[in-house]
Amino acid sequence: MLNNLLIKNYALIDDINVSFTRGFSCITGETGAGKSILLGGLSLVLGKRADLSSLRNEEKKCIVEAEFEIEKYNLKTLFEENDLDYEPKTIIRREILPSGKSRAFINDTPVTLGILSRLGDRLIDVHSQHQTLRLTENDFQLKVIDALADNKKIVSEYSDKLRDYQNTSKELEQLLEFQKNAIKEHDYNNFLLQELEAAPLETGIQEKLEEQYEQLSNVETILEQLSKGHQLLNDEQVGVINLLLELKQVSGKLSSFGNQFGKLDERIQSIYLEIDDLGSELESYLEQVEANPKLLEETSAKLQLLYDLQKKHGAQDVTELLVIKSELDQKVSATENLDASIAEKEAQLEVKKEALVQISDTLGKRRLKVLPELKQQLEKSLASLGMPSATFKLEIQDSQNFKVNGKNDLVFLFSANAGTDFGDLKKVASGGELSRIMLSIKAVLAQYENLPTIMFDEIDTGVSGEISNKMGDIMQGMSKTMQVFSITHLPQVASKGDHHFKVYKTEENGTTRTQMKKLNLDDRVVELAEMLGGKDLTDSAMAHARQLLN
Question: Where are the coiled-coil regions (predicted)?
């Protein structure tokens, strides 16, 4: 339930902070006092969009904060899914900055408007003229029937199966669409794949070929330098190896004269061995390196093929060519196995369709079973609301398509007067009649669902005193199991409230402000008397007001 509402710097509201309790609360006030402004502020914490014009003082931010008691609403899963701290008493805050930006918080954690709206829908049901129009929509009507039939679990299971069916159907459509273009593309993709398969594609091959090409194309220079190096090492007169050999002999003779000379000898011996090994390696290279025009031509051709393929496919290197080759291989394989894939997907879809049909049939039977009960309860309620001849014609029919809530079409026809034909609600029911029907439906739903706090916004507009008295009784009855608010102009409804709040305007220094206060018993008598007879209070109006409260 809604425990507290704080609104600052919103429209005509400077600062309102009001607490609420359980039961039936009525909100009254003169036309233009700001009751709609109060609802507008509340709608901000329920996730509705806002704009800069909402700010009373455009240099300050607007703050709307509401505290809700949510233990009975089974909302822990919603909090866990959105990584929010769950608190039995949850605080929602909405801020509109002077820049026009909006921020929302749930228990001080920043959230998106989408998350705020999802939570708001579970906390307060604001019943306005717009929602009354929803009464004429088939999905809302089915929702009412599902509440009576206790179909929540089955509808959820149906939704999961429908989502799975739709995903499989989409996959089949994609396969069929792919098949249309696959035949033309298959030959071309296969040609590209064979071209890549014929190329020497492996990681590092390009670098290896480029190195080989560089050596083969410069073989004379390599031989010349290898020969020169070999001569520098092995020349009989000035060769490095012969000179090192003499140095090795000298260090060998010195080694016996002390430890330091022994270490010097070891180092010279090591250098000699390394240089001697280099000489052998140079000699080996000299024997191996030779001009090979044929190999040079083959290497050049392979490299050119790689370069051409990279240019053709827009690839930077062989690694990217390998990726493209893998993708082409998948496309070619997919095309070649397409018929089998389509047949398999069609079989899967048929199985899922059959499961959907079965659960849809179960839903239809359960809905059909509760139609007489809903019809009886609605007609009984409307009779007490001054519509004794109101009757409904309710039927469940099978639909050709799977819908979001089943495979049923609902016939929900209405006749307000005896002897008149049945017709669609939106065509044959007046605004006042729709309001009474919606109130009756909400009262029925309250018996079967754990409804959130409900706020009726002038649902009694256009009805007579006696009928409004009955509407007040219904709202009062609903408040036994839930928190109910009614914004009303009728004293008959306002007198039914366990709590009474007044919205009013004040003027100070040329500035108009909307205020709100909770009325005590004496204040309620005065307020009801003014609603009955105007500002000029009479003894009869005061007496009537006391009578209504009693």
Answer: 155-182
| Cα–Cα dist 64/42, whole Å | 7
Out of 233-247, 495-509, 512-526, 529-543, pick the least confident: 233-247
Start-end of H helices in 199-258: 205-217, 219-234, 240-254
Closest Cα to residue 410, out of 98, 121, 148?
148
549 in helix, strand or coil? Answer: helix
What is the dihedral angle through the alpha carbons of 419, 424, 428, 429, rounded to the nearest 10 degrees? 110
d(CA 16, CA 10): 10
Q: Residues with Cβ < 8 Å from 453, sequence gap 6 or more?
A: 1, 2, 68, 123, 124, 125, 482, 483, 484, 485
Location of structure tokens 């009614």: 486
Tell me how far apart the alpha carbons of residues 171 and 134 are, in angstroms, rounded to a whole number. Answer: 34
**Angle at the Cα of 465 from the Cα atoms of 459 and 466, rounded to 5 degrees:** 100
Determine the Cα–Cα distance for residues 215 and 221; give it in Å rounded to an integer: 9
CA distances to 148, 234, 416, 498, 521 from 440, in Å: 14, 114, 14, 21, 30
Place 410 in a pLDDT band, splitting at 50, 70 and 90: confident
Q: Which helix (H) or strand (E) covers residue 444, if one does?
A: helix 431-448
* 3-class secondary structure, 468: helix
Mean pLDDT estimate for the chain: 86
CA neighbours closer than 13 Å in the CB half-sphere of residue 41: 27
196 neighbors 309 (Cβ within 8 angstroms): yes
